[in-house]
Specification:
Pathway: Amino-acid biosynthesis; L-histidine biosynthesis; L-histidine from 5-phospho-alpha-D-ribose 1-diphosphate: step 7/9. Homodimer. Belongs to the class-II pyridoxal-phosphate-dependent aminotransferase family. Histidinol-phosphate aminotransferase subfamily. With 379 residues, the chain is an alpha/beta fold. The protein folds into two domains: 137 residues, Aspartate Aminotransferase, domain 1, CATH 3.90.1150.10; 222 residues, Aspartate Aminotransferase, domain 2 (3-Layer(aba) Sandwich). 37% of the residues lie in helices and 15% in strands. α5 packs across α6, α11 runs parallel beside α13 and α12 crosses α13. Bound molecules: pyridoxal-5'-phosphate. Pyridoxal-5'-phosphate binds next to α5.
């Protein structure tokens, strides 16, 4: 007799669809028989500069230790974070990417009797981890593609255990300033934890910029998460962290895997924190590339969502799937975000100037050559 193993999975998992990552370069090369060297990937908000030389040197040096378990406490990395951001090592929880930390937080504080609040169009991992543990996800309709913080406060009930706020948000790039975030936190009951996901905070500049870490003293229910995957250029090595009260960190520490950050990731992350020049260049290249894409979209008559991150979502109309396919055939990988409920948009990560130019060229080729549908936009 055959068993339906699907039915054995816990309820939340049965209905779960997996996270859809950006297509890897080698996969596209295999699928379409393209030369991988000619493919550009602007699909996963990776740092286009390549890794920092300091991180690379640290990784090389750490290679001889691969036979040993990593430092499960991440002593050196916590010291480096602590020195850079003026927080105590006891406030830091390290993760296998911040994704890991987001999952650990959810598992520590929510169960099948809980509600977890997040925004429509917010980072896909929040609904995913919520559903996986059988909690009820409450998706609050967005306002101008961004978090409607007032409505999120309204959505809190007696069962709410967690609220996720991505600032800036992925995939929309929307951001809230200090005043809005503080007024939001003021209205959240102390028994509800707020996760402020600052995966893109390094790219923020100028007035009104919120540094979640500066709010921790005032809001003991706040957990700030950050990552080495984006501006710090270490997406492949999987290192992220949260900063919270030591009490919350202590709880997270019970559930995380004891060796969740490996030796190479620890070494690289520790080293890159000392590479200020790399961070500066990352931000400069990003700011320039953002301008480049914005002006090209303007010339093409395409609407986009102004973004505070290292990516931008552009409205290419109803033919987005065909346009994406054409881009792939031209060796350009971007991210369709229909899965986020944004079927007309493509999310493009900011690349090097020549990569951005190639994307723009491929996009205008796609827009110009594809047959128009009746309701599609004219070119
Ligand atoms: C990329 C991203 C993360 C996590 O990335 P990790 O590589 O797991 O650290 C978290 N939140 C948002 C909003 C992101 O875009």
């Amino acid at each position: 007799m055959s068993i339906d193993y699907q039915s054995l999975a816990v309820k939340g998992v049965q209905a779960l669809s997996p996270y859809q990552p950006g297509k890897p370069i080698d996969e596209l090369a295999r699928e379409l028989g393209l030369n991988p060297d000619g493919i550009i990937k602007l699909a996963s908000n990776e740092n286009p500069l390549g890794p920092s030389p300091k991180a690379l040197a640290a990784v090389r040096e750490a290679l001889d230790e691969l036979c040993r378990y990593p430092d499960g406490n991440g002593f050196e990395l916590k010291q480096a974070l602590s020195a850079r951001f003026a927080v105590k090592p006891s406030q830091i929880t390290l993760g296998n990417g911040s994704n890991d930390v987001l999952e650990v937080i959810t598992r520590c504080f929510a169960d099948s009797s809980s509600e977890v609040v997040f925004s429509q169009y917010a980072f896909a991992v929040y609904p995913l981890v919520t559903q996986a543990i059988g909690a009820k996800g409450v998706s609050v309709p967005a306002k101008d593609y961004g978090h409607d913080l007032d409505a999120m406060v309204e959505a809190i009930t007696d069962r709410t255990k967690l609220v996720f706020v991505a600032n800036p948000n992925n995939p929309t790039g929307t951001v809230h300033g200090a005043e809005a975030i503080e007024s939001f936190l003021d209205r959240i009951p102390a028994r509800v934890l707020v996760v402020l996901d600052e995966a893109y905070c390094e790219y923020l500049q100028g007035e009104g910029y919120v540094d979640g870490l500066s709010l921790l003293e005032r809001y003991p229910n706040l957990i700030v998460t950050r990552t080495f995957s984006k501006a710090w250029g270490l997406a492949s090595l999987r290192a992220g962290y949260s900063v919270s009260s030591p009490e919350i960190a202590n709880i997270l520490n019970r559930v995380r895997q004891p060796f969740n950050v490996d030796t190479l990731a620890l070494a690289a992350a520790t080293a890159v924190l000392g590479d200020e020049e790399y961070l500066q260049r990352s931000c400069e290249v990003n700011a320039q590339g953002m301008k480049q894409l914005e002006s090209s979209f303007g010339e093409m008559g395409l609407e986009y969502i102004p973004s505070a991150g290292n990516f931008i979502a552009v409205d290419v109309g109803e033919r987005a799937p065909e346009i994406n396919q054409s881009l792939l055939e031209q060796g350009v990988i971007v991210r369709p975000i229909a899965g986020y409920g944004m079927p007309r948009h493509l999310r493009v990560s900011i690349g090097l100037p020549e990569e951005n130019a190639r994307f723009v060229e491929a996009l205008s080729h796609a827009l110009g050559t594809l047959p128009e549908t009746e309701s599609g936009r004219g070119v």
